[in-house]
Task: structure prediction
Amino acid sequence: MEPASNANRTNQSSPGKMMVLDYLFEDQSGLKAYQLIRQVSGAVWLVLDDDELLATLDKTDGRWVAVGDSSLDVSRLNHIGSFIDKQHFNFLPGKIKSHWADWVQEVIMENDSSYLVICRANTDFFRFKSVFSAFIGQLVEDEWEITFKVYNSDFTDEFMVRVY
Result:
């Protein structure tokens, strides 16, 4: 069965790069939950049922595949991968870069609650601080605190914005 609607609750992770997602779905025995854990950005995802490792997932050539042994069928692995792909943290860096294309060079996700934003050379950093601080909340759809550390192009100036 498909994941239950509104089941994509993301847990706020501790400082660092670990990300934890709760994947809720229904099967013949009722509502179930797997915990999806990624230790660092770009690493494989662990699929856990309580403390039991069910699978290790990686995205290779645009497809989600099990790394090593898996006790889950291919259909379930594909649903879990699709769930991960739909998470807002996958889209926020691109949204920021396209919204402020003339001012933002790069956006780096440290984890689901912390992003680094690096401005382009010749950006009026004082003006960008005002604009970014006023409008970043409109781009963020997540329901937890997110911190943006914003740097000028040569990293000689910075500011921080928290969105709740």
